[in-house]
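Schema walk-through. Below, the input block comes first and the output block second. Nothing else is stored per chain. Lengths vary across the set, and this one has 196 residues.
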Amino acid sequence: MLKVGITGGIGSGKTTIAKVFSTLGIAVYNADERARSITSSDPGVREKIIATFGAELFNSDNELDRSKLAEVVFNDEEALAELNDIVHPLVRIDFGNWISEQATPYVIKEAAILIENGAHKELDEIILVKADMEERIERVMKRDSVDRELVVQRMNNQMSDEDKQEFASYTIDNNNNQLVIRQVLEIHEDLISKAD
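--- output ---
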């Protein structure tokens, strides 16, 4: 089965694009959501997070406080790498299990750090979703109810679109000045032909 990745910087709209593919009947795996589910449900992951970052990241109900975790890892590359080393191997296994249950011509794995964590190497094609910086900042401020400075800080900690571009088979411009449906349909048709 053809495996396709969708990635893009924060606020680029990759989740929206993934939903468009989903409406076309393509199975979409949201790696970030699955990672959240794994960190919540896997006791071994919880133990490793506590051993690495401390028990104070969990509330009285033993639930991971994601905002506290984000504060710890977003400005510390080493801490982020440690967290990724805990969670990403399990996400890879989960993705493999998920693929075996799908019956669409191709599948999509949506992930924010698809290239950074090396997951792109296990995929056949990569779709990069791009949008102008100001557009992205506005989207994230509105979506997450956070200030501009925090959004810019998060962006600065991500791989740039220019660096991601060299890994991309396809690029979608999601700046609200072009119809994304047409772009998605063109890519979809091409992927269907490759999947045959």
